[in-house]
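Title: [Solved] Mannitol dehydrogenase 3D structure

Original question kept below for reference.
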Amino acid sequence: MDELTLAPLSNATLARLPDGVLRPRYDRAAIGPGIVHVGVGNFHRAHQAWYLHRLMQDGKALDWGIVGGGVRAADAGMRARLAAQDNLTTLIQLDPDEGRVEVTGSMIAFAEVAETGHAPLVAAMADPRIRIVSLTVTEGGYYRDAGGALNADHPDIRHDAAHLDTPRTAFGAMIAALRRRRAAGDAGFTCLSCDNLQGNGDVLQGAVLGLARMQDPALADWIAANTAFPNSMVDCIVPATGPRERAMAAAAGIDDAAPVTHERFRQWVIEDRFPTGRPEWEAAGATLADDVHAYETMKIRLLNAGHQILANAGELLSLDSIADCMAHRDVAALLRTVLSREVAPHVAPVPGRTPQQYLDLISGRFANPLIHDTVRRVAFDGTARHATFVLPTIRDALAAGAPLDGLALTEALWARMCAGTREDGTAIEPNDPHWDARHRNAEAARTHPQIWLAQDEVYGDLADAPRFEQSFSRWLRTIWCDGSAAAIRGYLEAPA
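Solution (posted by the thread starter after getting help):
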């Protein structure tokens, strides 16, 4: 279809979309707000917003419309793009056996993104019709120290502790809204993290209550008594959007400024603790559980850690996408060997799936040739992702006296990547919020590997674990002397 003939996506143009494009069957004007979601990126729109859209397609959850929100400058651009198309999103399912294009409409508004103070976001969350505030602010967005607790010394946290009505963080905004609700005699809301963190609800509770106690201990007590922080596990591979993805939407007959591509697989496991109510997510395929810990562990330790294994090696070897990594014999073998030999033994099964079955599942998902998930996107913020996804298994392996050479190699590949050049000599652009420190220490670790492990904010006490330190140092020296490919082959050829 000629892109010039396409009308911009909007409520008014829904009826004119081509046959075969799925679209809302519900009256969007009849939807009331029930959820504020902070961090409206591609993942949220392909995952949580889709589950709600599916309920609405069946005439359910029409009082649970999503109001978007953000606390970063970049969120203002997303708000502008979505507002121009009535907050509609085109989802393009990339699957060799079942492609699909669907326009979703569960988001009904997006609070204005303020440069300071986040007053519109606070007002949106203070609305008593809002019963859930959910977040996808990335693993690095929770202001945790090396031990996983709230970093009370971070400048943003110190600011929010002293400036109750002009917060910088999402957590400060949530507390400001809850303060208003308490003053008005309204109920609290459920706080739902949808980020890839072990015990993400517990982490969110620590951030909100920790900051609230710094401000007002009595308010913190009220929040603890009048809110809930359920844990959840989320899973769907959702690449970033660029010209390629916008062209896909145009080819389907849709002029969407912010379409989302995604795989067919979705999973959402949620601890069922919602004192102010919730949508009937299980009717759309979510799993409500009393305990999501085993699901979280399986996904974080295998899929998310596996992504880091692939992305760091792939970046150094000039492989563009995760599918390209899976097409590379040695990189794909590295993934399967490290996960099966060194990670899966520390992962418990979940109902209906063993760790080995999950490894088979994610291997197929990673290899999907239609999903252009770049190694750069997956490798972003290694500081948070390695600490969250990889290092816990290293600690388990040390405690159990279990193998960890492949995990040490994974960390050495990350250290080499942060030196900022690929093996072909091309530059790796900064790709971490803490890039300056990572790059500086990666350069120094070329001759003194222990310098990399001495980064306390990442490794903590692991720097003092001789077995890990010796393996890491050996692999990093091998990488610098012989290259990443040789180090990977050396690991694969070593006796188990």
